Amino acid sequence: MIAKLSFLAALLCFGGFVRGDDCIPRYVENLRINVSAVLTWEVHPDEKCEIKEFKVDVVSDDHDYELHFKVVFQYVDLSILPVCEEWHFVVTPIAADDVVGYERRLVGHVPLPSSADISLRYFNVTQQNSRDVLLQWDLLNHTLGDCTLRYRIVIENRESGDFQDVYVSGRSTNLHNLSPCVPYHITIRAVNIAHPTIEGPIRFNNLEIPPHAQVSPSLTSIEIGPTSADMTWGLENWSNRCPVRALHIDGGSRFNISVPIEDSPDRPPVEVNLKGLQPNRMYYLKVAVENSGGLSQPSQIAVQTAELDPGH
Ligand SMILES: *[C@@H]1O[C@H](CO)[C@@H](O)[C@H](O)[C@H]1NC(C)=O
Ligand SMILES: *[C@@H]1O[C@H](CO)[C@@H](O)[C@H](O)[C@H]1NC(C)=O
Ligand SMILES: *[C@@H]1O[C@H](CO)[C@@H](O)[C@H](O)[C@H]1NC(C)=O
Ligand SMILES: *[C@@H]1O[C@H](CO)[C@@H](O)[C@H](O)[C@H]1NC(C)=O
Ligand SMILES: *[C@@H]1O[C@H](CO)[C@@H](O)[C@H](O)[C@H]1NC(C)=O
Which residues fall in a coiled-coil region (predicted)? Predict the structure, then answer.
């Protein structure tokens, strides 16, 4: 009940301000703060009211600090504000007859100036486990903050010349897609995105993840006769570039076969044709792939040969 009453009171109060023929100014548009710390906006293109001035309220996130202006132009110079702190910028148009319009709010910060020192104190590259690499860095000077900084990381494969170019924020990132056995050259620099042509000095590191065995090969097809088994085995793809040398088929006490592999980027499945098997017999096979990192874990299969066709 109390809520309803106060709602009514608010309506009446509002009604007292706005007469039927009053023109209520619309929201301003394109409210933004530029790199010179100038807050700008535009009058709504369909604005019907005559605008006398704009009320500009700048409030800190914790409401501890406030600035209030009334201006006739469509900008306010806010270079007195500290950079990289979050502010609420609220602009409200006021009509010639003092009717207050709708407010437009922007939450943002004054960008880092072009003069800011954005060099890095260090750039560390640490291999965490077989394939994960942690990159860490930090700014030399934190005085002004880092709100408009991104870090541009270029990962170059020094063998092929291929490179990846990524932008990250924060002070660290993980790379999961680096291949062992590839020499990488990794560079980093800060970029102030408020002044996109300004890049900080480069730091770099070289990295080569040591050779790493392949994952177990996977059986992709098999055809079994009375005395033969024709199989194809799929290999881990080129994301592990350590050169592949051979596929080993361990038939326990019965045989051991190695199929040499000529490695290539498409890593086609390897054909294995076992001959001279006994009909109607169970063979247990362990199949492992060997690369410069050693032997993979074996894949195990059981192969039951067919019975001899009585017609033969
Ligand atoms: C920022 O906006 C003000 C007002 O529009 C303009 O005078 C100034 O040149 C702008 N600064 C930059 C760097 O664009
Ligand atoms: C980065 O490497 C340097 C030199 O090895 C070391 O002193 C520093 O503690 C490392 N920083 C981090 C965050 O690991
Ligand atoms: C850090 O940057 C601030 C602001 O640009 C500057 O006044 C200060 O001298 C710098 N500190 C160092 C140690 O360079
Ligand atoms: C290799 O395989 C992994 C997953 O097994 C996949 O995410 C990746 O895209 C593949 N890479 C290539 C080069 O085919
Ligand atoms: C094949 O190799 C495995 C593992 O090295 C071994 O245990 C087995 O005795 C070998 N079999 C033959 C027939 O040599």
Answer: none
